[in-house]
Design brief:
With 675 residues, the chain is an alpha/beta fold. It contains 24 helices and 27 strands. It has four domains: 234 residues, NAD(P)-binding Rossmann-like Domain (Rossmann fold), CATH 3.40.50.720; 168 residues, 3-Layer(aba) Sandwich (Rossmann fold), CATH 3.40.50.261; 65 residues, 2-Layer Sandwich (Dna Ligase, domain 1); 112 residues, D-amino Acid Aminotransferase, Chain A, domain 1 (2-Layer Sandwich). It is flat. Helix 5 packs across helix 10. The chain starts with a helix and ends with a strand. Helices cover 38% and strands 21% of the residues. This is Acyl-CoA synthetase (NDP forming). Keywords: ATP-binding, Nucleotide-binding. It comes from Kutzneria buriramensis. GO terms for molecular function: acetate-CoA ligase (ADP-forming) activity; ATP binding; metal ion binding.
Length: 675
Amino acid sequence: MRSLDTLFTPRTVAILGASNDEAKYGNWISVQALRMSRPVYLINRRGEKVLGEPTYRRMADVPEPVDLVVITVPAGGFEEAVDDALAAGATAIVGITSGFAELGDEGRAAQVAVAAKIRAAGAVLLGPNCLGVLDTTSDLYLVSNPLPRGPIGLVSQSGNMALELSKFLADRGLGFSRFASLGNQADLGAADLIRAYAHHPGTEVIAAYCEDFQDGRAFVAACGEAVAAGKPVVLLTVGRSTASTRAARSHTGSLTSDSAVIDAACRAAGVDRVRSPREMADLVTALHRHGSAPARRVAVIADGGGHASTAADIADANGLAVQEFRPELQAALKADLPPSAGVANPVDLAGAGEQDIASFARTIDRVLTDPDIDSVLVTGYFGGYGDYGPDLAAREIATATAMAEHVHRHGKPLVVHTMCSDSLAADELRRHGIGVFRTVDDAARTLGMLADHAEHRPVTKTLPEAAQPVTESGYWHARELLKAGGLTFPDARLATDVVQAAEEIGYPVVLKAMGLLHKSDAGGVAIGLSDRDELCRAHQDMVKRLNVSEYCVERMAGGGVELIVGVRRDAGFGPVLMVGLGGVFTEILKDVTFALAPVTPQEAETMLRSLQAAPLLHGARGREPVDLAAAAEAVAAISEVGAAHPEIAELEVNPLLATPSGCLGLDARIVLVER
């Protein structure tokens, strides 16, 4: 772990490229820097005053060593500026300057060279092509725009995303403890910053916007470290990956999307993935307020039947469980509410708001007391009753206060959707840390994400030592490699004399033509050959059509459930395991799930149970259940082999036959990394 102390808590700072031009970063950052209490030196090559402050022409003229230098000069002068900063003793450099890797190979080469020079000097580089750095806990303001203070640590590859998130957070009464703009990540990457945030006392929740994860396994490890330290990580990403530029040559490659890989990485690290800056702000705020509190079993409370039913449906669609209340709770609610009220869940207060606004608080208190309820979703008109007169307005605000008190006493999450979200009562809820939403969709989605977070369990992923590389990719070589790794295959022979091989094995047999990437599609597989005549006819047909001389003769397996198991090596995240329903319809049905490889048998069994086809494994329609433990062991073995061979781009077993008595690999494929 590299020290980032001088990046976030420097004793002295210099702005190289300070300017009076209000259209330049050198001006914007100088304005913010001059807010700080630490020494700030403005470097301007003309030596003119900037923002009324004296400047220096060169770093060498500064009267003391400088810990952190922000460089805003054009790309042509960037390397010289870096040399000046290093000579002045800088151990942290923030490169605002653009014009490097984002422009092509020439710019990338210049970027690599200057980053290497900085690392060789024992310093760190943030950027280039970034927005700056901020640490409100150490009074560090080196970004182009003022940002709100708070407990959220942000790592962002986009400056504009950071600015938009800051506005959403400010609306929710939150802001940043730290912000680092990644830019091109020539030196420091997302993993470095997240790991630093994990050990930062002022950061409670970490938000990250990433487009390029670079070393994905390092990112997963850093996020896992943060989550283990009690600091949730929320990720927004566009799902890009260099793997998308490579044509897939197997089912595994064609079915594994960049987004699926990122989801697998998030599950491994315990990271919560969101789809937009607003969604990120909602979840970050909920995590700050409620941490890892359970939220799955929700009570829906409304002041009208329409809102009650709609909210219940939307809650269900977001993975929340709107379960019927126990009879005791229903009886307690019925005794307090109007006769027409619905009390089973969802709760319809049936006009109680106008007659007795305090019924909202009493109902919330009762349902939060119940051990079968994890959270509450209030929906409807609350917040608007104050429009009916000053007396009701005062009582509505008092009720909002009471609602918040009940929530804090019980320690269970409450979200409120109100069509009057700009009311004084809504403001009172926000003031007490209650989430208030303009739409019930946002309220239910946030509660659903909170429920998912509470059930996340990070899984440590360690890659095995690299095994002796394989150089051949044919079926027989794949078969033997997997057998050595613990996977069972039917008895087989690699032969030119297929009849002799079949007689050694015993009929019925399967005949497979060697040297074909997709044997079944090419008509290179014949199954259920029960005698010599059938075998000879199938063999002669393949020889004529395919011009193949070498064949695998394999004992015919019995019935079972066909699975597909594959490992694809992602450029950023390394080996990724895919498990799904196999056979010839794999790419049509696309019933698959993913995880970073390798996995344990326990993790493999969880993946198998998550498939839509899982009922087939358990014995659907009177069939005998398969040996799920054996199938999980087989999946784990395949994942270990794939993870131990970095020279293999794609490793696939399809089908993997799961039966009541065990598990057999019936076909396998290797795709080697292109050199």
